[in-house]
Amino acid sequence: MIKSLNDAYMLGLWCADGYHRTSSIGLSNINPVLISRFGEYLKREFNSNRLKLRIYVPKGAAADKKLISKYPEAKFRKIKKARHAAYHIYVNSRPLLRRFKLMRNTLTSMEKDFIIPYLAGRFDGDGSVNSNLKKDFRIVYGNRDEAETDKNLLQQIRPSCKVSIYQYKSARTYCLYVSQKNALSLVKDLLPYSSNLQKVTTPTP
Predict the structure, then answer these.
(1) Sheet holding 163-168, edge to edge
(2) What is the pLDDT at residue 201?
(3) Predicted pLDDT at 83
(4) Confidence of residue 131 (pLDDT cuts 50, 70, 90)
(5) How many CB atoms are located within 10 Å of the residue 152 CB?
(6) For the chain, which end, N or C, has fewer CB atoms within 10 Å of the first or last residue's CB respectively?
(7) What secondary structure, in 3-state letters, does the chain show?
(8) By C-alpha distance, which of 85, 82, 83, 84 is closest to 74?
(9) CA-to-CA distance for 201 and 24, rounded, in angstroms?
(10) Half-sphere exposure of 152 (CA within 13 A, CB side)
(11) Above 60 in pLDDT, residue 168?
(12) CA–CA separation, 192 and 87 (whole Å)
């Protein structure tokens, strides 16, 4: 069902920060670059006038001007108890929602060529790594099953990669950690697809 590397990346991003209702699908994030990237993906599927963008702006913060210029009909909402503007982009489309759900439900049989861009999307949505690109490489999940699925996918293409999953009961989350020995190599693999990693210094040995 996944047809391209871009499909795989967008699926990972949607699995991390995706939004869906009965007949709509989209992305919620505070990073305007990721919102813009998901929006460009949707524009390949639909006329741009079908896309909806909502921007939630706390007092004292500003929304991204570049993103606003792409969506002049964006709807603004005021919010409290937040430090950054938040963005929500979506489209009403049952067929696209069904397609993404099917892609998500068939992750375990994903072709190996799609695993890295998919993980890059997951990382951009819910991942982080230390500034040296070696320590504390992790991706956060809301349930263990999703973390275990991604651990298995990663070890399909990197059998020697040391991966652990930890549960944080107070936060009700699970974290997939990649060992410091393997993190830099994985970062280099994700770099061509990951918007977040491309903002930092290109890793060196």
Answers:
(1) 127-128, 137-141, 173-178, 163-168
(2) 60
(3) 86
(4) confident
(5) 12
(6) C
(7) CCCCHHHHHHHHHHHHHEEECCCEEEEEECCHHHHHHHHHHHHHHCCHHHCEEEEEEECCCCCCHHHHHHCCCCEEEEECCCCCCEEEEEEECHHHHHHHHHHHHCHHHCCHHHHHHHHHHHHHHHEECCCCCCCCEEEEECCHHHHHHHHHHHHHHCCCCCEEEEEECCCCEEEEEECHHHHHHHHHHHCCCCHHHHCCCCCCC
(8) 85
(9) 37
(10) 11
(11) yes
(12) 24
What token pair was written down for 63? 């929304």
Percentage of the chain exceeding pLDDT 70: 98
Q: Are the beta carbons of 122 and 129 closer than 8 angstroms?
A: no
Has residue 202 got a pLDDT over 70?
A: no
- Chain length of the chain: 205
- d(CA 174, CA 139) in angstroms, rounded, equals 8
What are 14-23's pLDDT values in tens digits? Answer: 999 998 988 9
Half-sphere exposure of 77 (CA within 13 A, CB side): 10
Structure tokens at 188: 């280099």
